## 1
Amino acid sequence: METSGGIQASLPGRYAMALFELARDAKTIDKVEASLALVRAALDQSVDFKTLTTSPLIARGAATRAVAAVAKKLKLDVTTSKFLGVLADNRRLAQLPAIIRAFRQLAANFRGETSAEVTSAHPLSDDQVAALKQSLRQRIGREVSVDLSVDPSLLGGLVVRIGSQMIDSSIKTRLNTLAHAMKG
């Protein structure tokens, strides 16, 4: 399988590739991707869950039990639930955001799509996401899957990363540019 961007070269990439191959063989790529989206949302919304995944003070067994409970509460598919258990056992939960990004890229490549990382100042509505996908599709010439995240420090606008390209229309960047220009 073609892995653009050297996904396999990184630790999160190797974990993502292993999960992707399991999902591909079981024909559950969409289910795993949906479960990972729930995990990503939980990481963004729950300080406790984020602490669980990043704190070195939480014992391995406690982390494994906690992740199993979270997986059950989120109603994750079996493959993703077991995968989270493996990450907890191997003390790799801190790599979860990067693993999710790499998995999404692998899944998008598998479907013939280009993946884009979109950071906005505020959560985007479904209509805004659809319009953004349409705009990116016209610009790139192929289907685009978007990985959405929110960064309030942008103040407004978007930052879109597609491969090595970056489109930054954030107010934060515009203000910084203006401040730099005014300094002379």
Note: The chain has two domains: 8-106, 113-183.
## 2
Amino acid sequence: MMNRKKKYYLCLAFISFIVIAGIGTYLFIDSRNSRQEMDELASMAYSSLEQSDDAMEDSSAASSSDIDLNDSNTLASEATSEATIEETSEQTSNTSNIDIVSLQNVNPDIFAWINIPGTLIDYPIVQHPTDDTYYLSHGPEGMNSSHGCPFIESCDSISLQDFNTVVYGHNMNDGSMFAGLHKFEDKDFLESHREITISTADHEMSYRIFAAVMYSDTYIPYYYDDSVEADRLAFLDSLSTDCVSSRSIILDDEKVGADDHIITLSTCDRKLRDNRFIVVAVLKKIDGVDV
């Protein structure tokens, strides 16, 4: 009888080991594949910026080699070069430094790129045309992935000009996707890392964070209608009322109103499963120009 029990427990332990090892292997491979996928897209997204920097360096080197210090036209040439640089800057100031067009050749659902300094958040943002839940379980290239990809729902515009655009992302154990949002629970970190950049094919938008809130599970796009001013104001008020105050920070140096454009970055919390942690930022600049 004892031998039979011993064999049973040994068999159960072996099966448990196999299951745990299998799950661990799957999670490792899934995390690795997601990281590789994002690295490849990041390389593609920033390639135009790198090429532009290289071209400027080559142009600068060529210009320097052509200068004759004894030439009376040197000062005039320098002035012309500066004017050309200023003109080029003006021509490119209304375009994004991220190559969204190339990313859209990989997946047309990619419409923007988000970067938050001080975190690992440096990812494409997608919007599926028919299925708002698709990118909960698919990466930015459409492959099955538990990491998913930051996304907005079809109720929000890819122009990011709604009052409140909600961007969702997973809180992954490996620190990827929107896990980095939880860094903003630390007030010192929040106060020193308030800038968010979102680039589209046409524009580069700069946002300033004003709230990091352990929010309720209220479905924001359904509960608050962006087309109604009272709802816009109600959402802003809810940041200080519909929350876990001990894990929420609202900075009072940004006066955000119903006519502003904001983004709400939303992820889950490992302890408070019925809550969402959100980081909210207001649009400050488009292509370097104040709005």
Note: The first strand starts at residue 110 and ends at 115.
## 3
Amino acid sequence: MRIDIITLLPELLRSPFEASILKRAIDNGVVEIHLHDLRKYGLGNYRQVDDYQFGGGAGMVIMIEPIDNCISDLKKERHYDDVIYLTPDGQTLNQAMANELSLKENLILLCGHYKGVDQRVRDHLVTKEISIGDYVLSGGELGAAVLCDTVIRLLPGVLNDETSALTDSFQDNLLAPPVYTRPAKYKGLEVPEILLSGNTPKIEAWREQKAHERTVEKRPDLLGE
């Protein structure tokens, strides 16, 4: 997979890809991450990328021309499955969406700033709009990093145990069940006996039951009941 990120602040995005699982995925050739500074496509001597909004109002708007030129250059090199705009009013990111995007080959992520981008970008250049939650950030970079993490960890060869992702919260619309590790007893607190039994079918049944109970308690909306 290749992910190209268009941003005004590439330095803000470098660190998430320099450590942990994401760095390993890049080092192992599972994913390529390319950061593109939108100001390189800015207009005039001052590399202008934003302007006042028509009709008046507070806040600047990122112009269509620099974005169009950047996306056009990228598309000259390869086909992209989606051009994704990170915006608070986009479709809320969930596990099903991450699963779907993990099957793609090439993605462009566009990070917004200020009052956003010229609407013509959204109408004609973007194919999908994604939000990471009902709140506003100072820019789309952190949202892009979150989106990349949710998608990349699902790619084959990224996690040491690829079945681990299948038992994450929100897979099958259930929260993950409780997990325990050594010691089995600590200050009078004990691990459920079933987990120490070695009986795999009963353990799996217990985990499924607990996942359902936890979902009913914390996120009943996931069950649609």
Note: Residues 2-152 form a domain with the Alpha/beta knot fold (CATH 3.40.1280.10).
